[in-house]
Structure to design on (965 residues):
């Protein structure tokens, strides 16, 4: 009797999950990536040193980082490299995904982590993720950067950057350099704690009517006692609807 | 209330009481045929003792005021920042720098005072060129709306300029006149060593790295027990070496008690270190909890705080209280025992008897004596002596340590013939840049004294005389000049008493010569015989005879020869009598014990508001919103009838009015006006007279339409 009840509850729970969870579109898939260079240290260790450390769409809550809730619109054929790093630099990992077709695919990203229990203990806001469309998957991988779809589904692109104590402004432009949105956004400093991997968070609203496609993220870094300089970073900006899928 | 100390204290007092009673009880049992009635009485007495002791200790702890805590930090940091709390105190004089709004490329030269607004972050960075960059900005999106003023620029002969959106200041001596500052004010909520990245980490290799430092925590001991005033001691309770990479901040709100200010400020100064491309930070805070994260354990938080146990064991006044309570209580028990015995003997007829021989200790019959023949007052006498020995008498801690900047020396504190508290030292100890300065003095128990009016009475003699306050801290003894010659003769092997950085020390000397001809026979020469080597920091120290009285003050030390020269105290006493016949301070300078600036910003960081009545250079201030307001506090109630002030030439005609407020109470926001005046056109002095009012606090509010102005020659007219 108990056995039957347990089976019933399990089946019911699975069905509920299927109904309540954000339904993937018909062409959405769940891809399993291969983890490389995954590490978790007690001490702060070397991080990439890149300016743009994380790029995601949505707004993270205050809960723990959920590896199994990462999604992305993989646009293009070939290899995609998911780069993950915690703000304090203790956790880092590279996950490689492969995509066979050219059409954009809304994919649930999955990978087997040897530190899955530890990862949950990191606050979601403490973990930066970004995807690089690159043939090689390492810290120095270059190519268009894709945001990871995470957290609350709102049309906000969050860039986690690492300019140290400089002041940073961010802006979106289309592929031709035409500015999107009305004004540049001043990035806010992440408050307390060790800020090795990233120190600022920039929240950029995705313009209404934006269609899934390539864009530019313009980051202006103004260091104390220096002059401002701007970096153009090629990104793939998903449409609002893709974030809701 | 204490978490740990109270139980320990209670247990200690109880244990001692019970021990005393046990002894007494035993003697009583041995001495008298104790019946149930006396046993019961003794038990009740014991219980009463214990309860009373417990109540006393509990009451003492319940009424113990929180100590004043001061934590000082001295460290090298690569960059630092603070969030402004009091804009006036965070003002920074800048020149030779280029100012630009953050995010924009071009800027303009600036020469004036930057006054960051409350809530703004001020950050100082050593750039890769070895220069200092300054940034002022809001970091909260609510404030960073492009409309809120982040700082006010006060420039000469210009209206204050409000700046929004954040400012960046970088040195540009090529195009901008003036010299960029190398001293920077710290006043706000700060964190030092707020980042620690190794050279190859992150985009910014090192941000705010704290390379090395010391942090020390002091408390002020209690100044009153019940109704008994005591001299509070400044006690160093903690001193920690901060390894490279540490982070220090006043504890965040969650670890701060409810009644404490969670936004504890650090106040101090930072100086640019050219070689290290860093800042030497000297700052202090009154936060009760300091959070430290050591390098290598960044995620672990350590706290520096004053526990009640530390306080109870290090505050001499609390220790004295314990000792006295225990001892006086013990003495009272002994007295009561006599009364009880007498009462039992006379009223109940219980005559003292010898115990049965079977229960008597095995002693020789010849040694057996009636107990009553023992001296009854011995115990009481011992306990009272014990109590008195612990009393916090103000010791004649005549040696003092004088610190002026990086240098320190010794001094000897005494009361001169006119009753003025003086400190005598070597003139070179208090000399800076050819001028005599008033150093910070600390006596042997760590108590800090205010020194003023340094005077070198004889230019040919390396001796300086200072006036010290509070006068109550001064020993009543003078220099003992009347017997100095005799004591010098009788002291061929005197002692040099000195206060080192951490402890008191002494050197045994042997006298080599009675005079040095070049000094007209006024100097004695001594060689070290035993003890630490003679060193520079001993200058100004007193050489003492066998009874601890001074015979000479050291003016010259020779470390190589281990030799010291000292000027005879009778020579010094004569100089004081003939050349310093008047008390050092009179009038306003003596009356005013505290200043504070409510409106306006000091232009010269080296000169504070109290210079307004000290010399001709006065105090230069930039008005804020057209006003300069300062508060002065008197040591006691004074009958004030006039105020006068001198205005510098440039500002004549630009001071609109002077309004004077006064109150017989400490300063408060709504003090009543007691007088006002308007300067005559072109007049150099502003003089206000009014009906005499008893005041303890005074507020001067000046309407000034120019910036900046120099105010000097403040004179206060008293009717009393």
């Amino acid at each position: 009797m108990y056995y039957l009840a347990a089976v019933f509850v399990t089946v019911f729970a699975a069905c509920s999950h299927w109904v309540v969870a954000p339904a993937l579109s018909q062409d959405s898939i769940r891809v399993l990536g291969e983890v490389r260079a995954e590490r978790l240290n007690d001490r702060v260790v070397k991080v990439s040193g890149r300016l743009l450390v994380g790029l995601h769409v949505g707004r993270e809550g205050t809960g723990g980082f959920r590896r199994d809730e990462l999604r992305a619109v993989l646009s293009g054929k070939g290899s995609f490299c998911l780069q993950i790093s915690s703000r304090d630099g203790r956790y880092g990992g590279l996950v490689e995904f492969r995509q066979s077709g050219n059409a954009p695919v809304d994919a649930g990203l999955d990978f087997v982590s040897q530190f899955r229990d530890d990862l949950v203990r990191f606050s979601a806001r403490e973990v930066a993720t970004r995807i690089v469309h690159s043939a090689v998957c390492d810290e120095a991988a270059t190519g268009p950067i894709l945001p990871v779809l995470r957290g609350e589904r709102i049309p906000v692109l969050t860039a986690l950057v690492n300019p140290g104590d400089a002041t940073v402004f961010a802006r979106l432009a289309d592929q031709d350099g035409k500015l999107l949105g009305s004004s540049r956004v001043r990035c806010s400093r992440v408050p307390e704690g060790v800020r090795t991997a990233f120190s600022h968070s920039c929240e950029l609203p995705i313009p209404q009517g934006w269609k899934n496609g390539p864009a530019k993220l313009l980051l202006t870094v103004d260091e104390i006692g220096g002059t401002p300089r701007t970096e153009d970073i090629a990104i793939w900006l998903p449409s609002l609807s893709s974030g809701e899928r | 209330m204490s978490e740990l100390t109270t139980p320990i204290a209670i247990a200690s007092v109880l244990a001692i009481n019970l021990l005393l009673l046990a002894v007494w009880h035993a003697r009583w049992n041995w001495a008298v045929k104790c019946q149930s009635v006396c046993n019961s009485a003794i038990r009740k007495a014991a219980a009463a003792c214990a309860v009373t002791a417990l109540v006393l200790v509990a009451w003492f702890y319940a009424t113990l005021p929180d100590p004043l805590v001061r934590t000082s930090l001295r460290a090298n940091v690569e960059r630092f920042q603070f969030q402004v709390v009091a804009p006036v105190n965070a003002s920074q004089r800048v020149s030779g720098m280029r100012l630009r709004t953050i995010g924009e490329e071009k800027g303009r030269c600036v020469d004036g005072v930057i006054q960051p607004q409350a809530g703004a972050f001020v950050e100082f960075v050593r750039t890769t060129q070895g220069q200092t960059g300054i940034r002022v900005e809001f970091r909260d999106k609510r404030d960073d709306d492009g409309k809120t003023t982040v700082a006010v620029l006060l420039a000469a002969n210009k209206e204050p300029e409000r700046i929004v959106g954040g400012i960046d200041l970088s040195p540009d001596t090529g195009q901008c006149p003036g010299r960029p500052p190398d001293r920077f004010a710290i006043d706000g909520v700060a964190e030092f060593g707020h980042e620690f990245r190794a050279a190859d980490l992150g985009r910014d290799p090192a941000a705010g790295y704290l390379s090395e430092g010391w942090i020390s925590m002091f408390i002020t001991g209690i100044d009153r027990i019940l109704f008994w005033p005591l001299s509070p001691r400044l006690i160093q309770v903690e001193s920690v070496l901060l390894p490279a990479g540490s982070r220090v901040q006043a504890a965040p709100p969650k670890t701060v008690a409810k009644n404490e200010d969670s936004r504890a400020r650090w106040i101090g100064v930072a100086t640019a270190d050219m070689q290290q491309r860093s800042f030497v930070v000297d700052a202090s805070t009154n936060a009760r909890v300091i959070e430290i994260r050591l390098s290598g354990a960044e995620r672990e938080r350590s706290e520096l705080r004053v526990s009640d146990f530390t306080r109870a064991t290090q505050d001499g006044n609390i220790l004295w209280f314990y000792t006295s309570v225990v001892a006086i209580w013990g003495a009272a028990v002994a007295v009561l025992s006599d009364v009880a015995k007498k009462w039992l003997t006379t009223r109940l007829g219980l005559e003292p008897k010898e115990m049965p021989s079977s229960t008597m200790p095995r002693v020789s019959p010849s040694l057996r004596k009636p107990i009553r023949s023992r001296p009854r007052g011995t115990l009481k006498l011992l306990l009272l002596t014990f109590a008195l020995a612990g009393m916090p008498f103000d010791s004649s801690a005549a040696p003092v340590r004088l610190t002026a900047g990086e240098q320190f020396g010794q001094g000897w504190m005494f009361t001169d013939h006119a009753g003025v508290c003086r400190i005598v030292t070597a003139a070179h100890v208090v000399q800076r840049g050819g001028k005599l300065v008033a150093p910070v003095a600390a006596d042997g128990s760590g108590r800090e004294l205010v020194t003023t009016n340094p005077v070198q009475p004889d230019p040919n003699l390396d001796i300086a005389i200072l006036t010290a306050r509070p006068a109550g801290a001064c020993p009543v003894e003078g220099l003992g000049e009347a017997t100095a010659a005799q004591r010098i003769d009788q002291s061929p092997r005197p002692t040099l008493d000195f206060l080192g950085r951490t402890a008191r020390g002494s050197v045994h000397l042997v006298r080599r010569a009675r005079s040095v001809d070049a000094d007209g026979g006024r100097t004695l020469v001594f060689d070290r015989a035993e003890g630490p080597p003679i060193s520079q920091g001993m200058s100004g120290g007193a050489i003492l005879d066998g009874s601890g009285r001074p015979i000479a003050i050291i003016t010259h030390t020779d470390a190589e020869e281990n030799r010291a020269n000292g000027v005879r105290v009778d020579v010094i006493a004569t100089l004081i009598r003939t050349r310093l016949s008047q008390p050092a301070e009179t009038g306003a300078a003596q009356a005013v014990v505290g200043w504070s600036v409510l409106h306006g910003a000091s232009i010269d960081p080296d000169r504070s508001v109290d210079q307004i009545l000290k010399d001709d250079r006065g105090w230069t201030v930039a008005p804020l919103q057209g006003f300069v307001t300062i508060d002065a506090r008197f040591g006691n109630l004074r009958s004030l009838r006039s105020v006068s002030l001198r205005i510098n030439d440039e500002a004549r005609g630009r001071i609109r009015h002077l309004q004077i407020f006064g109150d017989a109470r400490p300063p408060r926001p709504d003090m009543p006006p007691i007088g006002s005046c308007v300067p005559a056109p072109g007049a150099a002095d502003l003089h206000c007279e009014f009906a005499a009012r008893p005041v303890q606090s005074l507020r001067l509010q000046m309407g000034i339409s120019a910036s900046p102005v120099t105010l000097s020659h403040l004179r206060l007219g008293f009717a009393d």
Summary: Chain B touches chain A at residues 79, 81, 102-105, 123, 125, 127, 131-135, 137, 139, 141, 144, 166, 168-171, 195-198, 200-204, 207-208, 252, 296, 298-299 (CB under 8 Å). The mean pLDDT of chain B is 75.
